[in-house]
Every structure is written in structure tokens, then in C-alpha cells.
Amino acid sequence: MTRDRSSLYWALFLVLGCICYRLLSGAFPDLVPNVSPMIAVALVGAIYLPRAWGWLVGPAAFLVTDAAFLSTNYRTEGSMFSWGTAVFLLFYALVGGFGALLAGRKSLLKIAGGSVLCSITFYVLANTFAWWGNSLTTITPSYAPTLAGWWQANTVGLPGWQPTWTFLRNGVLGDLVFTTVLLLAFDPSLVLHPFRSRARVTSSSAA
Questions:
Q1: Which of 20, 116, 153, 187 is deepest in the core (most CB within 10 A)?
Q2: DSSP-derived secondary structure for 65-125
Q3: pTM for the full model?
């Protein structure tokens, strides 16, 4: 009973942490980095929280922060909001499922690699939505409704703006930082002594 309650407290802490961080980043963009803890919460939460519901922490955090607080502009633009919400909810659920798969045989390298993979997937997914929303639903699109336009959206972006690949760089680094912070909270020995378990196995085999 105590363990279940502790897991629930951790889940609430992760969701509330996401809410606070995203609201602060929106209110103080010059002070708070424009990166999100969402992938780290979905991945690490699913690894260390109970398997039955731990994978839901990521979708819950996204729904509360993005859908309820940060994406209100999409509500006035029609179906883009509902489709976008559904797709990203599914994305974070899949990240949680991936985390649950890593839980049984976790290592720092696997979790870090999983974080990078999720970062790249999110980047391509978000830019695909930006390309689709701009090239196919506006009268004078900035992106061509072609594969070349999609590639532009995922690499250099639009002239006069920061290249989109820099957001991939920032996203990967930010997700790794948030993942490390959460691992230090949940399982500090995995970060501080990543090869300890392997060394024990090796010494046992030698004996």
C-alpha cells in the first residue's frame, strides 16, 4: 500500500513538474530554456513507475500542459488541434510503452539511446505537422506541398528564421539533461555507477 502510494506521488510530481516548467518557459522565455521535459517524463516514468499505469504519465502530462494550457490557439483553428492532440497523445503513449520495455533490462546507455531516438521521432513528427498545416491548409503556403517542402521543414526551415535543425540539437540535449535529472532522482546509482552491475557479474563469473 505504501509503495503504491509512493508511486502515485511520484507520478503526480512528474506531471506537476511538467506543468510548472512549461508555464515558466512560456511566461519567461528569456530565462527558461525552450526545451520540454515531456519525453524524459514519459520515458523514465514508464521505466520506474508500476507497469500497469506508468506509461500513462507521459500522455497525462502532455494533455494537461499542452492541451489544457499551452495550445489554446489551436482551438480556434479547427481540426488541426484535435488531430494534433490525438497524434501527440499517441506518441507519448508509445514513448511510455518503449520505456516499459526497457524497464526489465535497463542500462544508462539504453535509456540515453532511447531518449535520443524519441527526440528525433518527436522532431520529425512536429515538423511534419508544421509542414502539413502550412503547405496543405493555407492559401499561400510557405512550404511546398511536396517531399522537397517536407525536407525543407525538417532541415533548414523558412528563410529569415532559425534553421529547424537547431531545434533538433536543442531537443536532443534537453531531453538528455532532463532524463539524467530524473534518473538521479529515481535511480542515482545507474548514473553515478553505470558499470557497477556489469563489474559484479564479471567478478562472479571469474570466481
A1: 153
A2: IIIIII-HHHHTTTHHHHHHHHHHHHHHHHHHHHHHHHHTT--HHHHHHHHHHHHHHHHHH
A3: 0.81
